[in-house]
Amino acid sequence: MSLTGTPFFLTAIALLVIAVVLPFALWSRVRGPKVVRAVARLGMLLFAQVTAITLVFVMVNNANSLYDNWDDLLGTSDHVEAAKDLGPDGMGGLKAKNGPKQLVQFGPPKDSVVGPGVQEGEFKGRISGVSGEVYVWLPPQYDDPAYQDKKFPVVELLPGFPGSAKSWLGTLKVAEQLKPLMEQGKVKPFILVSPRTTLLGKVDTGCVNIPGKVNADSWLSVDVRQMVIDNFRAEEAPASWAVAGYSAGAHCAAKLALAHPDRYRAAISLSGFNDPKMEPASLAGQDPKLRVESNPLTILKTANQAGKPPLSALYISGAAGDGYEAGLALKQLAKNPTTVKVKLIPPGAGGHGTAVWKNQIPEVFRWLSGVIGTQPAGGTERGHKPDPGHGAEPGHGAEPGRGAGHGRSPERPQGPGRA
Fold it and tell me: 190-248 pLDDT, tens per residue?
């Protein structure tokens, strides 16, 4: 049974009701020696306490989308089938698009918490060796006959740690908020993609590649990206791709966009951090070399020193002591064509939590609509022809169809763990 959604929540409520009624019904009816009666009554009290704590946990977990299932909660999940040394580009000498299409059977999600219109599929990444579920939401224009030959821009959505792939679609209700804005032409019709990021039990991968352990970077920036292109009418050019995240996912978003301007044009970072050590469970933060190399500041500084500042646009928001200073540090380093927009979240807005990030969605996606599919003044994308432009509708493209088969601050969020 999933730890999120209605069934487990109702089960927790039912158990609590039983735990409360039980002492009233049986307290005076317990028979036997005094010790036996005391143990039985103590058991009833403990049962009531455990069920009450369980219900609180379920409510917090549903509100923040921290743990998807029992394996994630207990730290026994392992979605890594292989972790080869893929080299500095994370490709291992291979080209994802050169192989046969990796068609995935998408269907209704197992958990309705993600909302209407969401599809779920599972696949194994050919490059990364990671297996996991991916949730996809298609914009309202996708099935419009007027757009049948159009390709669409894409945004990958990353949760914090611990965090579920359902969080953006379920807790933050990103699709629910953006659908009317897309229909009104205020936000571009993005395909929203939310892949699994909890890959190795109770550790945060930091979205890095570590030979012998995990290739989380390649899972997100290569395999998931190519899978979406293979199964949906998605634009392939990096000018039409973005990555967004909150908390630990915000760190990943900035890192992936700056490290791979050949894959992403923009990143949205909500209450993130630069130093991966800010997440105690981060594998990257625990390795002195990776801690430096995977820091977005290091990535940007190294690119600048090589005379190749990335064609990347970053939107970074955070409160004082919770992401704002990290954004200012990146903004100070940014050189054309890199751009960094930093927004201060005022005190009292809600702290480090999903309510704050949920409220920012309309604004950040309006900003993203002005960036995706565009070029800075006088700029062109390295290795790519200038994009023909994406106004209210996406650029022209390929085959019709839906999916295959049918179509930080150390401040903690509310709840048991870090968002």
Answer: 999 999 999 988 899 999 999 999 999 999 999 999 999 999 999 999 999 999 999 99
Rounded to 10°, the helix 174-183/354-369 angle is 30
What pLDDT digit, counting tens, does each position of 52-66 carry? 888 787 767 666 667
CB atoms inside a 10 Å sphere around CB 104 = 22
Are the C-beta atoms of 179 and 140 separated by less than 8 Å? Answer: yes
Which class for 384: exposed (0-12), middle (13-18), buried (19 or more C-beta within 10 A)? middle
State how far the alpha carbon of 99 is from the alpha carbons of 145, 388, 416, in Å.
Answer: 30, 27, 43
Q: Strand pairing partners for 124?
A: 131
Pair 296, 251: CB distance under 8 Å: yes
pTM attached to this predicted model = 0.80
pLDDT tops 80 at residue 180: yes
Q: Tokens in use for 34?
A: 């005094």
The CA-atom distances, in angstroms, between 234 and each of 11, 241, 308, 374, 397 are: 40, 9, 28, 16, 8
Q: For the chain, how many residues are written?
A: 419
CA distances for 135 relative to 109, 160, 190, angstroms: 8, 16, 14
